[in-house]
Amino acid sequence: MTQPTDAAARFAALLAPEGADALAAAGALWADSPPDPLAAAAAMRAAGIPADLASTALTQAGLRHRAGAKFGPDAARLFFTRAGLEQATRAAVATRRAERLAAAGVRHVADLGCGIGADTIAFARAGLRVRAVDADPLTAAVAAANVAALGLSDQVTVTCADATAVPLDTVDGVFCDPARRRAGGGRVFDPRAYSPPWDFVTGLAERVPATVLKLGPGIDHALIPAHAEAEWVSVAGEVVEAALWCGPLAQAPRKATLLSTRDRAVNQLVGSGDALAPVGPVGRFVHDPDGAVVRAHLVAEFAATIGARLADPTIAYCYTDGAAPSPYASGFEVLETLPFSLKRLRAAVRAHGLGILEIRKRGSALEPERLRRDLRLSGGGAGTLLLTRVAGAPTAIIARAVPVA
């Protein structure tokens, strides 16, 4: 029989009545902002909470505090590990995925590599039955505790098992999030080093056609299976994942989905991923597409929505002669365009009175922070510097931001 690790034993202690009391005390200390560690330890000790349990509860309270950005109000009831929180799907992304599976007619889904249960919870809340599996005993225990904490145990079974050994004959949908980190914490970029293995992951759709694979945003397009929909998702401008929708779930070859945390808007762009945008001169306005648009190879499709062109066929900056605000890009009004030269750029920035400068780059090897120092900024104005190429030549564009649609 496998003996529990120290981490597993500490987590189990949190589930006991004494652990719940310790969590409540630790949560109160984290109510508004991170507490002073020494003062927090002293407060827990004064409340009669054993040192080991106090330390575990304070760590968990800190993770819950951080988790609010991903999980909203649920974070206060859920349990986390550091790695599990970092790798967990944001609640908004998981909810949309679950709703799409439910709308496609899936009723019983296997969540292979369920982590701490973020997607499992979303599936259950969408009305699906879930068979959740994780190979790590502690992670599986955390997922089971989270399912129970939200009252979803009737719809979910959580098992610690090797995903490759899980029978799939009773499910009509599969979601797989292969581990993309080494045991020491480093990221794995080669899909052949994923766990479960890449061949197993890509073969799931042959066993259960309604399969969704969650992958890192940097996935090579050459590895995307034929006839699968590859979707890149960004939240508030940060690309958080790529997902492959297989079989009957596929809707388009490539898709960029942008979720806004400001107004909860959802914008989607679809296309082949192979189209080419027209090329022409720099215009009065420049548009920097969201990372999901760029990752999905949908720059041409985005450019078509605003009548834009590229100034270099290999660079994603898009140009228009008139204002064209778009939810798919950050827009800037061009103040000056010049061939890159530190001396000339320093003089131009000074002439525009810029002392606060956002530096963006596409197609430039320059290091923004070093360039910022070299520019010796001293003005009182604010602007944006875009480092890029125009017709292959290193170019600097001084601009100012314009409102997003």
UniProtKB/TrEMBL annotation:
Q: Give start and end of each THUMP-like domain.
A: 330-400
Species of origin reads Luedemannella helvata
Q: Tell me, what is one Gene Ontology molecular-function annotation carried by this entry?
A: methyltransferase activity
Stretches assigned to the Methyltransferase domain: 109-176
PANTHER family referenced in this protein's UniProt entry, alphabetically: S-ADENOSYLMETHIONINE-DEPENDENT METHYLTRANSFERASE RELATED, TRIMETHYLGUANOSINE SYNTHASE
GO biological process terms on file: methylation
CDD domains under this entry?
AdoMet_MTases
- Domain of life according to the entry: Bacteria
Question: Where does the sequence pass through the membrane?
Answer: none
Protein name (database record): Class I SAM-dependent methyltransferase
Keywords in UniProt for this one?
Methyltransferase, Transferase
